[in-house]
Amino acid sequence: NFIRFVMTSHAYRARSDLLSEEPGTDYVYNGPLPKRMSAEQLMDSIWQVTASNPRNANAKVDRSRTNKKAAPSEVQKFPWPDSITAKWIWTTEQASKINLRKEFILTEKPAATGILATCDNAFTLTINGRLVAHSTIWQKPVKMVQRDLFKAGKNIIEVEAEMFGGSKGFIAQLVMQNEKGVEVIGTGPDWEAKVADQAWAPAHIEKDYGQAPWGKALHNGDIQDGKTGAEPPVRASLVANDFLMRSLGRPHRDQVVTSRPSSLTTLQAIDLANGEILSNTLRKGAKNLSRTEVSDDISVWLYLHALGRTPTKDERKTLLAVSQNSPNLQGLEDLLWMVFMQPDFQIIR
């Protein structure tokens, strides 16, 4: 009721009041004053549109959520396998950080998917561009049941794995349930692995399941009341302050401020024009959007999600010219720059 009251109020729905100077003591409210988004708001908005949120938060906050789509009774009734056929995998190199992936095609969308996974020492699991799970304790494997992870057609499972020393290995077994029964996908030689800046290669088998030093790690613990272990996308306020957010006005933690500058500085303009941090974020966002199912006209999709409106006729003409000149990831990255640099995106009206 309160949200409905606020969103239907005249004050909330009033048009922005454009002032030529800062309001004084005789100011009379005629509508909200436009203001620039804060550093955290700007980055959160860009991350949300492009699905380029950081994998991990620096703040030690438990934000894991309960799986509302799978009730505890459903979780307990899920047909978990009696045996684990998955194998511990890594790369052939002694790398501390690696990437793993598995691409496959499904003839139909699973009704539900059970996931068992762990890594010595830490991993982040993404399915079709969606963050699914993260863990840093291999003795406590991720055990979850979720829906809407996979679709009919091409699917991709991606893993960022890290070891802190000693033994290394990642193992996962996914059980997809449908009307015909279950389909199992487990880590093995048909997965691909790579180290940064190197080509993909078949994953290396480290150990069979059940062997030392991990034993039957996936059998540790129980499934708890639909707890997924997955967390919502990381917010900018939960990550360490970087040069971009600092230039956009985010203060150091030890500084107490009651307001932030609203005017655009030269440093902000430089960072927003060609800063390395923002450039890397948009490059990652373009890659994510390129493998996400959106409408045929990506420019319309971007405007709707970023600005809440469709592009005008002239804007569509310009956007179309840009996308045709660079019909690849670079062109999509250029579109992101064009949308996110607009006042309509950066200013709250």
Describe this structure in words.
- This protein is α+β, with helices and mostly antiparallel strands and 349 residues long.
- It folds into 2 domains: 36-56 and 236-348, no CATH class; 72-219, Sandwich (Jelly Rolls).
- It is 27% helix and 23% strand.
- The protein has 11 helices and 14 strands.
- The chain has helices at residues 2-7, 10-13, 39-50, 72-77, 243-247, 266-274, 276-290, 298-306, 313-325, 329-340, 343-346, and strands at residues 35-36, 87-90, 97-106, 112-120, 122-127, 130-135, 142-146, 153-162, 169-178, 181-186, 192-194, 201-202, 204-208, 347-348.
- The strands form 4 sheets. It has a 6-stranded antiparallel β-sheet, with no helix packed on it.
- Strand 5 (122-127) and strand 6 (130-135) form a beta hairpin.
What key attributes describe this structure?
349 residues; alpha+beta; Jelly Rolls; 2 domains; six-stranded antiparallel beta sheet; four-stranded antiparallel beta sheet; 11 helices; 14 strands; 23% strand; elongated
Q: Find the CATH superfamily of the largest domain.
A: Galactose-binding domain-like
Order of neighbouring strands in the sheet with most strands: 6-5-8-3-11-12
Which word captures the global form?
elongated
If helices are DSSP runs of H or I spanning 4 or more residues, what is the number of helices? 11
For the report, how would you describe the main beta sheet?
6 strands, antiparallel
Distance between the termini: 24 Å
Query: Under the CATH scheme, which architecture of the largest domain would be assigned?
Result: Sandwich
Low-confidence stretches: 222-229
User: Roughly what is the average pLDDT, rounded to an integer?
Assistant: 84
What oligomerization state is this entry in? single chain
Under CATH, the topology of the largest domain can be stated as Jelly Rolls
- Count the strands? 14
β-strand amount: 15-25%
Question: What's the structural domain tally?
Answer: 2
The helix-and-strand class reads: alpha+beta
Give the proportion of residues in helices.
25-40%
Strand-and-helix sequence, N→C? HHEHHEEEEEEEEEEEEHHHHHHHE
Return the CATH class of the largest domain.
Mainly Beta
